[in-house]
What we know:
mainly beta; 10% helix
Amino acid sequence: RQQQPPPRRGFGRQPPPPPPKRGADIHYRLAVPFVDAAAGRDQRITLADGKAINLKLPAGVEDGTTMRLKDKGQPGGGGYGDGIVMVEVGSHPFFRRDGDNIRMDLPITLDEAVRGAKVKCPTVDGAVMLTVKPGSSSGTVLRLAGKGWTRKNGKTVDGKPERGDQLVTIAIQLPADLEALEQRLEGWVDTAHPREKFGL
Length: 200
């Protein structure tokens, strides 16, 4: 008589095999010029497969911001991994970020400060004309509305991300040759007391 095999011991069915894994993520570094990051301009990036795509920067982007590109990673049995893009915002020779605003120092001549003038002022969108009022002092801050950094709040203006302002600090620059100025000022003394608030 044929013997029956011994009964199997266990706790039920074997677990199903794990689902196939997705491919690995691919990490990228994207260097973005300061002016492009401020204005939220689209960037061109070349992926590992050689294809170039336009990348829309998130509002309020900053140095170290990461972006996920779905299915732009390595292939795998469970599908493609993602592309992970880390943004590196470049510095600028005269613009500096202050939250949602951009600050800069703008040199003007003494006669522009005394008489007032319309002067060209750089912004991340290109040069604009800025009105300097007569009698402006060094340290005066002028505001250019909407010329700052894209805000993170997600609000839009005319279909574009809302932006902060550009704050321009006036810096009076004296002429290199002071002789003519000294001749014109001969005998004149300014009777103001600019250091009085310091008790001096």
